[in-house]
Every structure is written in C-alpha cells, then in structure tokens.
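Why do we care about 3D structure at all? Because function follows from shape, and shape follows, mostly, from sequence. That is the central idea of this module. The next example makes it concrete: a single protein chain, its amino acid sequence, and then its structure expressed as tokens.
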Amino acid sequence: MNSVKTVVVVSRDPVLISMINRLLKGIYLVVEFSALRSSLDYIYSSIPEVLLIDITSEDPAMVAMLRDLKSDPIMGHLSVFAVFGDDVMIPHWDYLLADDYVKRASLKTEMLSRVGLCIQRSERMIEVNPLTGLPGNIQIMKQIQKRLDSGEQFALAYSDLDYFKPYNDRYGFSRGDEVLKMLGRLVLNTVKERQPLGSFVGHIGGDDIVYIMECNNIEETSVQITGYFDEIIPGFYDAEDKTKGFIEAADREGHKKAFPLISLSIGISCNNNRQFNHYGEIAEIASEMKKFAKTVRGSCVKTDKRHW
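And the structure:
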C-alpha cells in the first residue's frame, strides 16, 4: 500500500500553487483545485489527510461548505489548513473551522512543518482503516451509540463479501486488497450520493463494511450498491475465470472446488420498528440479516422488518 499522504490544495493563485508544489511535492501527493466546490468529489472519493485552502477574503459560501465537510463523520480526520494574505485579519476559528493556518510571508519557513503536524494530529485523533481510509471500529461504535442516545431514527447496514477467501487463495492478498478498496470507494460514493448529509460509512475490518443512513433510503441504496458491485467485480478476474464464471480453489478441508465469482451480502436493521439502547443490539440484528442474505446465491439485501 502506498503510504504517501495526500494534500488537496484549493487556490486560484498560480504563484501560490507553484510555491506550495515546490515545498510539498516529493513529500506529499499534491492535488490542485481552483475552487472548494470542484474539489468535493475528489475529497469524498479519496479522503485526503489535509485540505489546504487559500483564504483571500471572507466567502460565506466557502465557509458553509467547510462547515458541511467538517460536520461529516467520514471527514473526522481531515485537517483544514488555511493560507492567509499578510494583511488579512484572522477570523474566529468557530467561524472558519480551520485546524491551523500560516501567513503567506511565512510559507517557506513554516508550512512544511505545520502540514506535518496537522497530519500527525489527525492520525492521533481518529482511528481509520489503513486500506480503505474509512473510520474503524471505535468511530463506528461512537456513531451508532451517539445516534441511539439522541433518539435519532436511523438504519444500519452491514455488508460482507461472499467467496472472498477463495479469491485470495487463487489470486493472492494484494489483488484481494484491490477488491476491498474498490468496495470501500463504491459504498462511500453511493451512500454519499444518495444521502450527502448525516450518513456514515465505516470499515470494521477484513471485508466487513457498515454504513448508516435514513431508514427510508437505505434499502434502495443497498440494492443499488449490490447492482454496481455485480457490474464491477468481473473485471477483477482473469479473462479465463471471468468467462467460466467461477474459479477453482481449495475449500476449508483442502479439497479442490469450484467457487462462484465474489458477490455482496448486505443486512439492514432500523430503530423505527423497535427500541435499541446499545450499539451492540442494532449491530447484532444487522449481522443476523447479513447472515440471512448470505444464504441466497448471488448478491442480496435483507432488511429486518419485524416489529417488537
């Protein structure tokens, strides 16, 4: 896995962009955008470590976009680093929601060290899965429990890959990791497209990814995810196996066996039908539904619709 950290730079000033590139390139992956709005698709799909913004004036639209970005649980570890003109008054941090800043006159002497500190600080603040960049178990538990404690109505989906072990056995773990990264991006992009605000995607570990959405939106989104997955996954197989529609690998007893292409099973639980007090309760029902979905051949979504 590539360990190079990503810094997204938002500026319309070519002189500033050139200076930042000279200071950061070779140490970080620098991705440039002229406006914050045009950078959002990249930020949500790639989740960089630092968002570096050129603040030339107070822009209410930009501030509102930053607020939305920083309030999103997925972006909990994203550090916002502001660059101010030397004559610009520094605004209140609760207004701008930046984590650190530097004046243009101090760029050459301070920016590299300050960006590094931003990344170190964000890594201490939040646990993320190193493969997908998605929040891990601690953040998942906090997100679920916080919503339960506040009385919010929401649904939890638990996704799991079928026949993933035979794929790893046949092709190796590095290609298996590519499948997991694809799944993480697919789930994140689809969930955020269907519900930009208030949704959450996390990676428990292995091939288990969970997401939180509104109850009336999650089932249709999950069906969409499985449809996309079934379209994409054949491309991760060699041509011969893709044509056959299965691979041959050893089962748990060591016997050679034919396994179908990887499919995706998703189980859903929602607290609009019953009351949950602990995150483990709603997670258990979602896991139960996921196991039910896995009994069906091919990709499948099962939702708990029982009333208790």
